[in-house]
Structures are given as C-alpha cells and as structure tokens.
Design a protein that fits this description.
The complex is a heterodimer of chains A (314) and B (541).
Chain A: H1 14-46, E1 54-56, H2 63-91, E2 99-106, E3 109-114, E4 119-121, E5 123-127, E6 132-138, E7 143-147, E8 152-156, E9 162-166, E10 172-178, E11 191-196, H3 198-207, H4 214-224, E12 249-251, E13 257-259, H5 262-270, H6 293-304
Parallel strand pairs in A: 2-6, 5-11
Antiparallel strand pairs in A: 2-3, 3-4, 6-9, 7-8, 7-10, 10-11, 12-13
Helix pairs in contact in A: 1-2, 4-6
Chain B: H1 2-8, H2 19-23, H3 28-56, H4 67-102, H5 111-134, H6 147-151, H7 156-183, H8 196-228, H9 241-275, H10 282-295, H11 311-339, H12 348-371, H13 373-379, H14 383-413, H15 419-446, H16 460-490, E1 538-540
Helix pairs in contact in B: 3-4, 3-5, 3-16, 4-5, 4-7, 4-8, 4-9, 4-14, 5-7, 7-8, 8-9, 8-10, 9-11, 9-12, 9-14, 10-11, 11-12, 12-14, 12-15, 14-15, 15-16
Classes of the chains: A alpha+beta (314), B mainly alpha (541).
C-alpha cells in the first residue's frame, strides 16, 4: 500500500487556490495550538502545587489583554472569510466559453450527457484546459457531485437545477464520489473523471455517440409532445414564441421579470403555472411525468439552439 | 461518638429506600442520578454501534455487515449519542445535581417538572430503542429530505417520535434552569457571584428553550409528509427539500452549543479549583457563554454551502460563523491565563481539563477551516467534518463530562475514586481519542466522503489507524466504569471538600443532605474566592 498521501492531487485551477488557503489556515492553527499548549505546559510545571496550603494571589483579569486577544483573532478570521469567500465567488461564476454538460443523479448512479449527445454513466470525459460547466439535478433524493482532485462539490437537488464548474489542469483519472448520503448504495455511487488531452478527447467524442446531439433529440421530443402547436415560432400561437427566448429577460403577468435560464425553462415545462408570461393565459398543462429529467435537458438545449434574441423591431 | 454520628447522618441517598422512592423522587440530586444511569446505558449502546462501524472500516470492501446495516449503524450511533447522550449529559446529570447547590438553593424551581423531564427522556428513548430493535433506521441522524420522507423504508416515524418526545425533556430542563437561576439564588448570590458553570447552563437553557421547539416542528412536518403525503419537502409533492435543511440546522447548529457550553462551564470550575485561582476575566467568560448562545442561532446556513443556497447567503453565513469563533477563543485564552501564577494540582479532573483545552483548541481551530467557504466546498460531507465535530463533541463535551464526573463524584457519592487508575484512564482516553480522530482530518482533506460503507483502498491505512485509536478509546471509557462502581463500596470517604474548592456545593456534607444545606448559605464573596477555603494559607505568587 505504501505510505498514504497527506494532500490530494491538484487537477483543477481551483485546487491550488483552495490549498493555499488551507496552508494559511494550517499556519494559523499550528501557531495558536503551539502557543496555547506551550503556555499550559509551562504554567502547569512552573506553578505546580508545592504544598497543600498554597494560596496564590488572586488576579481578576485585564481588559487590555481581553481586547488584544479578541481583536487579533477577529482580524485573522476576517482574512479567512474574505479569502474563502473570493474562492467561493469564483466557483459560482463559470466563464462564457465553458463546455456545458448535464448531470442527473439517481439512486445510485450519475448520468451525464454531453451536448453532442454522448451519454455516460459514472464516468465523465473532459478535455484538459477547458472550462466545464455542469448543470445538474436529481431524479429522487439529494446527491452531491464531488471530485476531490478538483476541490469542487455541488449538491444535485431534486426539483431544481444547480450548477458548478471547473477547469481541469492535468490529464489523468480522478475519483468521482457522491458526497451526500442517499441511501443503501451511497458509497458505490461514483466512478471516475477522465481528463484527456484535447486530441484524445476529440477521438473519444467521435466514438461515443449513437443518436443525435442533445438539441436534435430535444427537437424530436418537442415535435412528439406537440409543443409547437401552441409555441409557434412567429408568436401567433396561444403560447409565447420560444425563438430567441434563452437568456432573455421575460416579463411576467403581475409585473415581475425573470431571466430565461435553464432553471426557468425547466420550471415552465414541469410547473407551467408557477410563472405566467405577461399577455398569455395559464393554459399550459404540466409535463411532469411525461418527460424525464434528461428529456427536459434536451428540450432546453433545443430551445437554446433556436437562435439569439431577435433584433428589437423599430 | 463523632464517628458514629457521621455514619448515621441522613443524606439524600439513605433518607428513603426502595424503587418507588427513586422513581417518584422530586429531589434534583436523585433525578440527576436517574439521568446518569439512563444516559450511561445510551452511551454504551451508541459506543457499541461505533465499535461495529470502526471494525467494518478496517477493510475497504465492506465485508462485515451489509450496506443497509452499515447505514443503520451510523444513523443509530448518531441518534443515540446526540439526542440520548450528549444533549442530556452535562446539563441533565451534573447541571441537575449541582446548579441548585451552586446557587445555594434547596432544589430546582419545579421539582415535579424535573422528574417529568426524566420520564420524557426515558419514553423518547424507548421509542428510539423500539425502532432500533424493530429493524433500525437509515436516514442519518440528520433526516435529510426527501430521503427520510419518501425513500427510506426504515423506522423513521418511531425514531422521529422518540426524538420529538426527548426534545420536551430538554425544553423542560432548560425552563427549569432559567427560572431557578432567576428566582432561587441564595441571599447575596448576585448574578456576578454565580459560578461560571451556572452562567454556562443559563446560556444553554436559553438555546434549549428557544431552539428545541423548532426541531419539534420540523420533525412533525417530516411525519406529516411521510404519513399523510402532504407536500412540504419532497419536490414530487410540490415541496422544497432544502427548506428542511434550513429548519433542521436552525436547531441542530445551536444544539452543538447545548453540548459544548455546559462542557465549558465544567472546565471553568475545574481550572479554577485545581489552580486555586479565580477565572481570569470572569465577566468576559460569563458573557462569552451568552454571546455563543445568541450568535449560535445565526450561523445555521454554514452547513449548506453546497446545497444550492445563494452565493450571498453562503457569504453571510460564513461571515457570521467567524464571529462565534471569537467568544470560544476568548474562553481558551482566559483559561490559560488563569493558570498563570496559580497553584496547579494534577488531580484527575484537572488532567481532563487540560485534555479538554487541547482537543477543543484543535476542534475549534478546524472550525475556522470549515467556516472558510472555499475550503468547506471541498471538505463538507467528508471525514474532515466528521473529525472536526468529534473533536468538539467527543473530545470536548465527553472529556469535560468525565472531568466533571470525577470532580463531583465525591460529592455525589461521598467516596473518592482511585486516583492512579483515574489518571491512567484519562491518559488512555486522550491518546485513544487523538489516534481515532486525527487521521480523519487527513482522510477528509484527501476526499474520503462520510457515511461510506465501502471506500477506495488508498484510504485504508488511515482507517486502520483510526480503528486502532478507537480500540484504545474503548478501553479508556471502560476503566472508569469499573472503578466508579468499585469506589461506591471501597472508595475512601471523601469528606465535605476534598479538593479545597470554593463553590457552595462543597460547603455542605458529602453526600449532601436531602435539602442540600442545613441552613441556606448567605453569600458574601465572589465565586472562586479561596481565601476562606485554605486553612493556614501559604501565600504564593
């Protein structure tokens, strides 16, 4: 088995960021632990009781010391807060050119789908140096997508989308775990992330698909479910046009607005009554049970493919 | 004549006899002992679950028990240890026994309610035991939805009812302490003359009274969804699973302070008595307990940094979490400063207090790691968190509980325990504890997720170390059981104040009379004034 490692491999751009903060925290922790342990050892020996009748002079405290040992730790913790928060903030802001991959967790497997339609179970193949954004949900209970080598983790929550992203920096094979307890085979719900050189990744992509791309499959589903009967591209239908919808700000009945992102489209398919577009009636039935989580993801990619928002009419 | 009189003296143990005199007692001291017996049983039950878990984790492939069984074991370990051992431990045993005595009262404010609290814990415990015997429960002690409400096929309802009922035990104990501290203090016992143990229990009681009802409500909502399919948490029924986490942690983070604040109170007593000095910065330490209780209610979201809550919420909860670290740090600094120019004894309770400071410092400092957002994303739900909270709850709370038990054992029983054995077991516990849990920090940062029945082989060495430590720890916990029992009959007679301690509880006989004091004391000094305790004092320092 050999000696165990003390620190995990660094295989994403976040990994060194997180580790540097860890080293800072370790330094602070070791300093204060040693200071306290040494003081206790020293006092315990220096002032050990020598006779049963000893009565030490009472010392009731000192405000200057109290302030000193409140303010210094407070300052240090604020550094920790700011440093940790800045990493967290970066982890929530995927770059625009990130590669989109959809993830569905279910008891007890990870199902992943690439834009080209390549599907994987408990494996994820991605190219080195390319930012990857995961949009994920769960079919049943809460799971958590955890890749220690990337220092990232995100819960996959049923009923909503969550996202995470990372840029792998080192080709190799890394553990993928489910980190949120999800039932009997929780510890077996995992596999491997394969970070590949771009050339190998291209080869893998071309060998891995059987059906069409995500958007093509979404279009098929769109036709099967007859969505187009109401959502006509020119806006003449009973429901809003979906052309150029993605990314747009939508005006809702009642005055609120919402950004048309993945989560909004998912909700509009499964719970159409939740947000009604201004000027339209609440006539759409729910597609809960008629379309799987993967199907919803395909529909989203199809809607995304319907072009950019049209130029505003003059 | 005098010897005969001492032997004939009536105390709370020999005043009445028979099972009925115990089961219907309204004496806070006897109720404290009823709690002691009850939670000791639960401690060894929870420990038995932990033993099987640690043996199972010796090998990565999981050969000893099935995954279903493993999941039930860690759930029942957590449920037993948290709700039926740690939450009641120091408050219900040591607090029940000594809080009234330390403020010069004859009993708690509501003796009947105090007895009711014990019965509620027993009834709740029986529900939980029934669930365990009937087939167990596998949701984790955290009962995350929708797993607990829709997907688990185990005894969720009985377990949740057990915790619900036991929660009222905790609420009523807290209520009793609050009223007692307000209304029952002896003449001259002003707020700032109260021992820090009492301040810590007062702060704890605030959390018990304000936090526990939220847990009760949450468990009722879980039962509503599980039994009547009312959509609250399961998205398939129109609910929100993350809402459960907010409600659960709103209680369960403060619950950590229900476990650790009383421990801090015990340690303040031990450090003062065995260095024969007033606690440095008494008022600062007293207020830091209250500050922890208040701030503890504002940090629950730090359990949910990867749950999908907003980035802004994550930042707010991280920021607030650092503020709760400061009063804890202040306590450690003040305890250390108290030792300066003291008269330091190495009696067993003091060894536990030193051990407490050691492991609590590591537990507290690693709390800074998990409060840092960027680090927590990586280590949450790994063994790093497991190690962190065991350093607080096992290293901290149990070590203080054992220290307190040794300290007050002579008062409770009138007998001294054997000092050499006690020192040995304190050392064994300290070493066993660190060997068990320190490797888990490394495991967690390497990425080993918690609640895993099987794991990659590369983690095995650290798991083997941890199991080796757990074996040592088990021996350490077994030794005091034996010598405490032995001491009841063969221990040296203690006398009223074997440690030269300053508290009012030491100014009455050991074991105390039924009504604690022959005459209600009149308090004329601050807490921790040793000038009246030490006869023919030799001034030092």
């Amino acid at each position: 088995m050999g000696l165990p490692r003390l620190f995990p491999v660094q295989a994403s751009t976040f990994a060194p960021d997180v580790d540097h903060l860890l080293y800072f925290l370790l330094a602070v922790a070791v300093f204060f632990s040693l200071a306290i342990f040494c003081s206790i050892f020293y006092f315990a020996i220096r002032y050990r009781r020598r006779s049963e009748n000893e009565l030490p002079r009472a010392i009731h405290g000192g405000m200057a010391l109290e302030i000193l040992w409140s303010v210094i730790p407070l300052g240090l913790t604020m550094v920790m807060f700011t440093w940790g928060a800045s990493i967290y903030f970066n982890e929530s802001r995927p770059p625009d050119n990130a590669l989109d991959i959809y993830v569905v967790g279910k008891q007890w497997m990870w199902k992943l789908e690439h834009l080209g339609g390549q599907r994987e179970i408990n494996e994820l193949h991605i190219p080195v140096g390319q930012a990857v954004r995961l949009t994920m949900t769960s079919e049943d209970v809460i799971h958590s997508f955890f890749v220690p080598a990337f220092r990232t983790k995100q819960d996959a929550v049923p009923g909503r989308y969550t996202t995470t992203w990372f840029t792998p920096t080192k080709a190799g094979k890394y553990h993928l775990f489910c980190a949120e307890y999800c039932g009997t085979n929780h510890s077996r719900m995992g596999g491997w992330v394969y970070v590949m050189e771009p050339r190998d990744y291209e080869a893998w992509l071309s060998g891995g698909t059987s059906g069409g791309s995500l958007a093509e499959n979404g279009q098929k589903l769109f036709d099967e479910l007859a969505c187009g009967n109401c959502h006509k591209p020119d806006g003449s239908g009973r429901c809003p046009s979906l052309t150029g919808l993605f990314g747009k700000t939508v005006q809702l009945a009642g005055g609120a607005t919402v950004k048309a992102d993945e989560g909004y489209i998912r909700e509009s398919i499964l719970q159409p009554q939740a947000k009604i577009v201004a000027g339209y009636g609440p006539i759409m039935p729910t597609f809960q049970g008629l379309v799987t989580e993967e199907g919803v993801m395909q529909l989203i990619e199809y809607i995304k493919s319907l072009g950019p928002p049209p130029a505003l009419p003059r | 004549m005098i010897t005969a009189a001492v032997q004939e003296r009536e105390d709370y143990l020999n005043a009445t006899h028979g099972l009925k005199s115990w089961l219907l007692t309204k004496d806070h001291k006897r109720i404290g002992l009823l709690y002691l017996a009850t939670i000791t049983l639960f401690f060894f039950l929870g420990g038995a679950f932990a033993t099987v878990i640690r043996i199972e984790l010796l090998t990565p492939g999981g050969g000893l028990v099935s995954s279903e069984t493993y999941n039930k074991l860690f759930t029942m370990h957590g449920v037993t240890m948290i709700f039926f051992f740690l939450i009641p431990s120091i408050p219900a045993v040591l607090g029940n026994f000594f809080l009234p005595m330390m403020i010069g009262a004859r009993d708690l404010a509501f003796p009947r309610i105090n007895l009711l609290s014990w019965y509620l814990l027993v009834v709740g415990g029986l529900f939980a035991l029934f669930a365990m015997l009937a087939g167990g429960v596998d949701t984790g002690w955290t009962f995350y939805t929708p797993y607990s409400t829709t997907y688990s096929n185990t005894w969720v309802i009985a377990t949740a009812l057990g915790i619900f009922v036991a929660g009222f035990s905790s609420i009523l104990t807290g209520l009793n302490f609050i009223v007692t501290v307000h209304r029952m203090r002896a003449p001259g016992m002003t707020w700032f003359r109260m021992p820090l143990f009492v301040w810590a229990h007062y702060a704890t009681a605030l959390i018990q009274v304000l936090g526990t009802p939220v847990l009760a409500v949450t468990l009722v909502l879980v039962l509503c969804e599980r039994v009547f399919h009312i959509g609250i948490f399961d998205p398939a029924l129109g609910g929100d699973p993350v809402l459960f986490q907010h409600l659960f942690w709103f209680y369960s983070h403060p619950a950590v302070y229900i476990m650790i604040l009383p421990a801090m109170g015990v340690v303040s007593e031990l450090i003062s008595t065995f260095s024969r000095k007033a606690i440095f910065g008494y008022r600062v330490v007293a207020f830091s307990s209250v500050a922890i209780a208040v701030l503890g209610f504002l940090v629950w979201g730090h359990h949910m940094f990867v749950s999908g809550q907003s980035v802004f919420a994550g930042m707010a909860f991280s920021f607030l979490s650092y503020f709760v670290a400061i009063p804890s740090a202040i306590k450690v600094f003040n305890w250390t400063a108290t030792l300066y120019k003291g008269s330091i004894s190495y009696a067993t309770p003091m060894l536990y207090a030193f051990g407490f400071i050691g492991v609590f410092t590591i537990g507290g400092l690693t709390g800074l790691f998990v409060a840092a957002l960027g680090i927590d994303v990586h280590v949450t739900d790994t063994y790093f968190v497991v190690a962190h909270f065991h350093y607080i709850m096992v290293g901290g709370a149990i070590m203080a509980y054992l220290g307190g038990l040794h300290y007050w054992w002579p008062k409770m029983t009138g007998r001294l325990y054997p000092e050499a054995w006690a020192k040995l077991s304190a050392l064994v516990i300290f070493l066993g504890f660190n060997l068990t849990f320190f490797p888990q920090f490394i495991l967690g940062y390497l990425g080993m997720p918690r609640r895993y029945h099987t794991y990659p082989a590369e983690f095995q060495i650290l798991h083997v170390l941890s199991t080796a430590g757990a074996s040592v720890l088990a021996v350490g916990y077994a030794i005091p059981m034996i010598y405490f029992a032995w001491s009841l009959r063969y221990g040296k007679v203690a006398g009223a104040n074997p440690w030269g301690a300053s508290g009012l509880e030491w100014k009455t006989a050991s074991p105390p009379p039924v009504h604690n004091f022959d005459r209600i004391p009149v308090v004329t000094h601050d807490a921790y004034d040793y000038s009246t305790v030490v006869g023919e004092a030799v001034e030092v320092g």
